[in-house]
Amino acid sequence: MEKLVILFSIFLTQLSVAQMAILGDPMEPVPTKITGVVDGKPPSDAIVLFDGKNMDAWEHVRTGKAPQWLIEDGILTVKNGTGTLVSKQHFRDIQMHIEWRPSGEVIGEGQSRGNSGIFMQSLFEIQMLDSWENPTYVNGQAGSVYHQYPPLVNAANPPGEWQNYDIIFSAPIYDRDGNLERPAFITLLHNGVLVLNHVEVLGSTFPRVPEYKATCEPYELGVTMDCTGKLPLLLQDHGQVVSFRNIWLREL
């Protein structure tokens, strides 16, 4: 029995060496050196979309004019009725960080309480909602892919407290003829908790039936455009008081 154990150990060692020989020990390409998140500051290779000073990275979704949302003490707050915002830059695959806060004054219930959303490529909404002791349909609560996937758990903080979203988004891929080759995928950490684990997005989240189209009309943009490449982000004005800070992303 002892000899068998020794032989098995030798076999495992040889297998490990063989695997290393197959994989090799490459010296290049050398990963780019960056500075990670330090004291809440974005990584050195991040694209900052809101740093508490201005809204230069955003414009009104319909008019293209400067946003009318409010900035006070480094915090951006929806000015109800002034309209949804769209990013000036367009993106595909990203890692995104955004901090948001529903009003501490509880007004309304369900979808009428602290409602906003961040739309990947202006097509795929990750819901923001005051989901603290606020029942609603499960795929419409905070941390959901709207109308498609509920979060694995409800990680919401109480009203008036800051919430963090860390998002990994993989954009859909189309072939040269405009046929879908691979759908979009979303991973989401809500307040540091994994709530969406590489879920396959069924299509754009605002039509009654989710859909993928090579030529489409993104949410609220009011124009038909090529949807096979880079597209803007969208930050929703849903008519309720929601605040934001520290918005950045990294292109992947």
Keywords, separated by commas or semicolons:
252 residues, Jelly Rolls, 8-stranded antiparallel beta sheet, 1 helix
Overview of the molecule:
The protein is mainly beta and 252 residues long. The chain has a single domain, classed as Jelly Rolls. Helices cover 9% and strands 34% of the residues. It has one helix at residues 2-23, and strands at 47-50, 58-60, 70-72, 75-77, 85-91, 94-102, 116-120, 124-128, 163-170, 173-174, 180-182, 185-190, 193-200, 215-216, 225-226, 231-235, 242-251. Strands 1, 3, 4, 6, 9, 12, 13 and 17 form an 8-stranded antiparallel sheet that branches.
Q: What's the CATH architecture?
A: Sandwich
CATH homologous superfamily placement? Exo-inulinase, domain 1
Give the domain tally. 1
Mean pLDDT: 92
Radius of gyration: 22 Å
- Give the CATH topology: Jelly Rolls
List SSEs in N-to-C order. HEEEEEEEEEEEEEEEEE
CATH class wording: Mainly Beta
Unreliable stretches = 4-8
Q: Return the structural class.
A: mainly beta
Q: In this structure, how is the largest beta sheet organized?
A: 8 strands, antiparallel
In percent, how helical is the residue content?
A: under 10%
Count the DSSP helices.
Answer: 1
Shape: globular
- What's the end-to-end separation, in Å? 52 Å
The tally of beta strands, per DSSP, is 17
Kindly estimate the percentage of residues that lie in beta strands according to DSSP: 25-35%
Write the layout of secondary structure elements.
Blueprint: H1 2-23, E1 47-50, E2 58-60, E3 70-72, E4 75-77, E5 85-91, E6 94-102, E7 116-120, E8 124-128, E9 163-170, E10 173-174, E11 180-182, E12 185-190, E13 193-200, E14 215-216, E15 225-226, E16 231-235, E17 242-251
Antiparallel strand pairs: 1-17, 2-5, 3-4, 4-17, 5-16, 6-9, 6-17, 7-8, 7-16, 9-12, 10-11, 12-13, 14-15
